[in-house]
Design brief:
Two copies of one chain form a homodimer.
Chain A lengths: L17 E2 L5 E3 L2 H24 L2 H8 L14 H17 L3 H17 L8 H5 L13 H19 L3 H16 L14 H12 L2 H12 L9 H4 L4 H4 L16 H18 L2 H17 L31 H18 L2 H14 L18 E2 L13 H9 L8 E4 L2 E4 L5 E7 L2 E9 L6 E8 L5 E6 L7 E5 L2 E2 L4 E3 L2 E6 L6 E6 L3 E6 L9 E6 L2 E6 L17 E7 L6 E7 L7 E5 L11 E2 L2 E2 L8 E3 L1
Parallel strand pairs in A: 5-9
Antiparallel strand pairs in A: 1-4, 2-6, 3-21, 4-5, 6-7, 7-8, 8-14, 9-13, 10-11, 10-14, 12-13, 15-16, 16-17, 16-22, 17-20, 17-21, 18-19, 19-20
Helix pairs in contact in A: 1-3, 2-4, 3-4, 3-6, 3-16, 6-7, 6-8, 8-9, 8-12, 9-12, 12-13, 12-14, 14-15
Chain lengths: 618, 618
């Protein structure tokens, strides 16, 4: 494994935990390796092909003067190319692929060539409106820059190649020269640059990058915003999260992806500065989105109109917008919150998104995508091969191979296991190296074996996340039941002088669970959703043709959870066994819907309740 | 195995299912064999010794003129001796014991010798008030007769010896000569004779016995009752279930054991006659007791004052009376309701009582007993070796070895498996013999293997009860998942041409479940009980000394269910793991409480709730 970035394993000043980057985590997991393989073999190539066919790549060649022609597509299309490159970078870590790397290098050559002398890089303006650069805050120039920076760092970490990183640094310096204290005002119309600049600081140790990120955040809420988004009377500044200084925000507003990218950037800045205004705002915003504005799948942003938030508890099922991008954004933010606070509740959200809202964004075959992820459909909603605005396909393309980032976190004397994904983690605790090997069939089975493969002399703690859905578990160390483990922020904490060969067995029980929505989510009144482990289930018409519309969960309904290797590439499917045709049905994981014949789907099922029983079992 | 009673495998005219008696069910079960062994080796001998030391046995010798002396003890004490003999009979089926049988024979000789010429048999009246026979309806003469009949039939079925049966028949004929249409009125002050007379009919095929049982039931509610119970102004006729004709009853009243013995007798008569008045009343009474008047342990009768029922939802924990006898009575009644209707909901109650309310009645050592079974104590309530009124010790002594009666039921084309207890059932389906072998570690583990050891040519159905607590199960036949089994009255129904060697694997998932009481059970407001499989748990002070009084279940509490072979003869104990000392505790099965150092105990624990979450997992 390549390991170029030593800084990223260091804790930021106000973080409880340090990031363990994907470069140090090798994934060899029945569930995720299959998804990563589909991603590398199909999705990334499909995205590259689409980027070629839609002019997204040739826009760079044109801007570089290497070929003739006008700009094609939408002004922010460069970002899709960057995101595909970022996905390629992550995927090369787990599975080297010379052909794919060569193709990426070729694209990178175009990108570097397209960069202007002063560092400017956005092919739309270079080709179509060279005089209008940095005049409209909604034209995503800094958004594209952010994605370039993220792609460049990932590609450098994965391959050691600096060409894209150098271009990114040059562009960052260009932006840093234009904007900042006593320079021009700029309210980013599509946040992304903030978290990217912090990443660039971590890679380069140049403090001015994170300070510029801080500045970008502080620009908001002072009336500096100008552009299309601000002018729409029905949206106003709240759409762009520019209605208040960020430290004064308490409720989520506007475009969901932009909002959550911003919260992620705020979390980075809080981790660097300890800014109490940011810490307070983040806690309030997190509570507001997670406890009042999130679908059970982790989806956020119910409205198609603003691609974003509406009002608390407004979570309609059929018209749910729930961009795939927004679910991935929730992962980016919650991962940072986990590092900041060391609390497992944020990793619970990462898990919820990983196995549901985000993963649903790509077909099992890897070449079809959802932009919008409703929780119910009349049969008219389907994955497609590409979108004019293809942020979501390229978002999932960069997310899936990056999951190594979310497995572990560390500090001077603790290793935190946030996600149960089989493979090997090469970790550093204090000054000593520790290698852990996870074996598991998660999420289908809750048994996880963690073996210490290498360890130093100094004792340290191993913290294992007990997911919020898990009400029952058993824990053994070297075969011995740990009946009195201490719980700490949702983790069981095992303090030992760990030695190579020691083994932990954690069994997370996974009954089918009924989930009820808050009574103010009026569309789910009288309805129940089914979950097993982290997986949210849905029913599809094709499995339940006889009584699809009448399907209910009744007090008599019992569930058989059966792993079927030949169904949907191998899933645990739920057979509901009731006393009548209506409460006898089959449910599949939500993330696998619309992978077979098209038809109706729903997550929330009506529930037939009896009169209050003397004893209600939960 | 002895098999004397062919009638008892035949369905009564209005039954869905026929009884499979204990004589055809060999128990070899980790859980129950240990309890049965303690019963045989300790409990039965302890009861015999107590009966000897308290004059209960010598009363018979005195009445027979074989020794001098006055009647000792309470007027109904004969019944305890009969119940011990019944227990010995059942226990000899699973584990022959020549010494025990010889002792029983000796006692039987006394009993037979004590019987008067005309068949009368109650040593109290023979010795103390020979002129007052059959003058006070509250003196339990027909109650004792009922227990003699039950003991006699069991002893005959187990050993083939008729002496006690002949005495029982002679007594039944004596009663039949005195009472019945156009003879004397008699309202039984402690019901029991009714179900016993039906048993005697099944054994002898003499129809007049069940008709006399019917007559006894019909006597009630017409103002014929006379005696102490009726005269107490604060009780009235409702105490004796004599306030209404039985067919008009809808709510449970009065003395719990007497009431439920009566319901059992009514169920027998309904199974023989199809009397719609009885069928309706039984449904109403069952609903009233199970859905409004039963503790989570299956205990019934909250009040010490009347040893019985009060008002709906009045279920206090500390002052809960819950006689052990009443829990066993619930088993007798619910078993009959199961045979009558073929519905598993009655077998669910049998299970609830078997593993909780009834089983708590005897110590693990087998020589200490609870009469009263509260759900919470300040540390003052303990098992003792004997009571002046020792109905409960002798009740548990006859119940535990009889559990073979509750495992299977059959009809012309179905075998029903009601209880998961390892061992061998020799069954008759239509005209063919079927042998089933169950293997399981129930109730600690939900995996049950059922192998067909012998089978005939004709296809039949196997019905497996899915307990009401079980929300998740898997089912295989010969290794093949049965994903679409049909459910019928709470059973999965497997229709096959069963052949020797075929094997069913049923896995009943057993997470720790939180149970909430109906809001009208005011004492349990804000409280939760813990259950795993059929086992209700409690906390004892000795396991939780540090924070016993502060113990709560919080939203952070997770559970580890751990089998500990050296704890309480081997139990699954629950380790609650929370974030603080108050939500970190250990719970043990309710039936095992007060088997170690004495102290406080409670079943219902306060629950710390958070604000309504966006998604509530159940």
């Amino acid at each position: 494994m390549v390991q170029n970035n030593s800084l990223s394993t260091h804790k930021l000043p106000f973080q409880q935990l340090a990031q363990v980057p994907f470069t140090q985590v090798f994934i060899e997991d029945k569930f995720w390796s299959a998804r990563m393989k589909a991603l590398q073999k199909t999705t990334l190539k499909a995205c590259l092909t689409q980027c070629e066919q839609t002019g997204r790549i040739s826009n760079f060649a044109k801007a570089a003067g290497l070929m003739d022609g006008e700009f094609e597509g939408i002004f922010y299309n460069d970002s899709d190319v960057y995101k595909v490159l970022e996905g390629i970078a992550y995927s090369l870590m787990n599975e080297p692929d010379a052909e794919l790397e060569a193709e990426a290098d070729k694209v990178i050559d175009f990108i570097a060539a397209a960069q202007e002398e002063d560092g400017y890089l956005q092919t739309y303006f270079t080709l179509a409106e060279p005089d209008k650069k940095w005049t409209d805050m909604n034209k995503h120039e800094e958004y594209c820059a952010g994605h370039l920076i993220e792609a460049a760092i990932a590609y450098y970490q994965a391959t050691g190649k600096r060409k894209l990183l150098d271009a990114a640094i040059k562009l960052a310096d260009h932006i840093d020269a234009l904007f900042g204290p006593n320079k021009r005002h700029w309210v980013s119309g599509h946040q992304e640059i903030e978290l990217a600049l912090v990443k660039l600081y971590l890679e380069t140790k140049e403090e001015r990058y994170w300070k510029l990120a801080y500045w970008f955040l502080e620009e908001r809420g002072h009336g500096h915003g100008v552009g299309y988004s601000w002018d729409r009377a029905d949206w106003g500044a709240a759409y762009s999260q520019d209605h208040l200084p960020v430290r004064e925000m308490s409720t989520v507003t506007g475009h969901a992806v932009r909002a959550v990218y911003m919260y992620a950037g705020m979390t980075d800045v809080a981790a660097l500065t300890g800014d109490e205004g940011y810490l307070g705002a983040l806690d309030r915003l997190w509570d507001n989105v997670v406890n009042k504005n999130m679908y059970i799948t982790g989806g956020i942003g119910p409205s198609k109109d603003n691609e974003g938030f509406t009002s608390d508890y407004d979570l309609p099922n059929q018209s749910a917008y729930c961009e795939t991008c927004a679910s991935v954004a929730m992962i980016l933010w919650n991962h940072r919150m986990n590092l900041l606070h060391g609390d497992s509740k944020y990793a619970d959200i990462v898990e919820r998104e990983m196995y549901n809202g985000a993963l649903a964004g790509v077909s099992l075959s890897g070449d079809k995508f959802f932009y919008v992820n409703p929780l119910e459909t009349d049969g008219s909603h389907h994955r497609v091969e590409w979108y004019n605005c293809s942020c979501c396909p390229t978002q999932i393309a960069r997310f899936i191979p990056s999951i190594g980032n979310y497995v572990y976190a560390v500090n001077e004397r603790q290793i935190v296991i946030n996600q149960y994904i089989a493979g090997i983690g090469s970790l550093q605790v204090g000054n000593e190296g520790v290698t852990l090997k996870q074996e598991t069939n998660f999420p289908w089975d809750g048994t996880v074996t963690i073996r210490v493969e290498e360890s130093g002399e100094t004792p340290y703690d191993l913290l294992l996340r007990i997911p919020s859905w898990c009400k029952n578990f058993t824990l053994k160390v070297d075969g011995e039941a740990q009946t009195h483990p201490s719980m700490h922020n949702g983790y069981v904490k095992l303090c030992r002088a760990w030695k190579a060969g020691m083994e932990i067995e954690l069994v997370l029980e996974m009954p089918v669970q009924k989930v009820y929505a808050h009574p103010l989510v009026i569309e789910n009144t009288g309805k129940v959703a089914l979950q097993r482990g982290p997986i949210v289930y849905c029913i599809e018409e094709m499995d339940n043709a006889a009584a699809y519309e009448q399907t209910i969960v009744s007090p008599h309904t019992r569930f058989q959870a059966v792993f079927e290797p030949n169904l949907l590439e191998g899933v645990v499917t739920l057979y509901a066994v009731g006393g009548s045709p209506t409460d006898t049905f089959q449910a599949i994981p939500y993330y696998t819907w619309d992978n077979r014949d098209s038809g109706k789907m729903r997550v929330w099922l009506p529930e037939a309740k009896v009169e209050a029983a003397l004893y209600e079992i939960q």
